[in-house]
Amino acid sequence: MAESITKGCPDPARWTGRTLRLLDQRCLPARETYVDCERWEDVADAIANMVVRGAPAIGVAAAFGLALAARSNTGLAGLALAGERLKLARPTAVNLAWAVDRVLARCGDESSLFDDVLQQALSIQAEDLRANHAMARHATECLQGNVNVYTHCNTGSLATAGFGTALGVVRQLQAEGRLGDVFVGETRPWLQGARLTAWELAMDGIQPTLVVDSAAASIMRAGRIDVVITGADRITADGDVLNKIGTYGLAVLARHHGLRMMVVAPMSTVDMNATSASEIEIEERPSDEITTWAGQRHAPQDIRVFNPVFDATPYALIDWIVTEQGVFQPAMI
Ligand code: MRU
Q1: Could you identify the atom of ligand 1 that is nearest to the CA of residue 56?
Q2: Which of 108, 131, 266, 317 has the least CB density, counted as fewest CB within 10 Å?
Q3: Residue pLDDT, tens place only, 141-196
Q4: Does residue 6 register a pLDDT over 60?
Q5: Which of 11, 42, 128, 233 is catalytic?
Q6: What is the distance between the alpha carbons of residues 313 and 81, in angstroms, rounded to a whole number?
Q7: Are 75 and 113 in contact (CB under 8 A)?
Q8: pTM of the entire structure?
Q9: Which residues pair with 179 in a beta bridge?
Q10: Ligand 1 test: best mutation among 192, 282, 310, most atoms within 8 Å of CB?
């Protein structure tokens, strides 16, 4: 049976037959607008400018970007060039490079290049959706009884090919009738938690509680959470996890309060070429993401800003890494 994406939630990336149609996540939840990418360069820009976000979703988008490149008749050399440029759009989430490398490695015949690349992009999308459902089933087997969850960033249908990584687990718990409270950290500065996760969950009839990121410690201390569940942008061979800035802090807090920390990500997020997190480039984004709000500056003019958008959580702070292949202790990865 084909697994479906979340009821009511629009596809983050859809092949229309001629273009890649991306839901513009920058406009949510206020407006549902779309960006139609006709060239691979449009896809690279959309990834860099946060139209489409989340590790698996940018991998899917990049694969369709290669299909657009293949259609432009520049052959294998043109495809490889587009692949290199797409990979540069965002450096930390490995799914982007993984998708590009996988497509390039599997095409060789110039006469059917477009059809081959398009088929691969569609497969990557379908496989990610299946992986999300499998991960959710594996993950809930680790969790006993009614479960109160804290989650961070967006890990749902919008960040993947559908259903979600960490949010897939929340959805699965709901389906099993075992979902307690869901606390969603707003996720400064792009507010993926407030703008995307809260919106997606409400569509499923799940009413989360939105909190500022700095509320996590006191909520844990009050005993209102059983487990922190996040996704990942890259998992190294050692089991270190790179994910949205703030994840490391949540893992430290969870350990301090005797709570469990679960990371849910498909195998396409596992980077066996990186031994530990220290080898990975952490993306830094422009300072105005922090110094301004809705176009209004609220910080002093010449303030120095440091805006890393991901952090690294050492494997020792993680209890479970869940992939479509099962549940692992980080050291087993
Ligand atoms: O900067 P973003 O919005 O692309 O970051 C997204 C995240 O960090 C997600 O938590 C991550 O990709 C994990 S799972 C979809």
Answers
A1: 15
A2: 108
A3: 999 999 999 999 999 999 999 999 999 999 999 999 999 999 999 999 999 999 99
A4: no
A5: 233
A6: 33
A7: yes
A8: 0.95
A9: 147
A10: 192
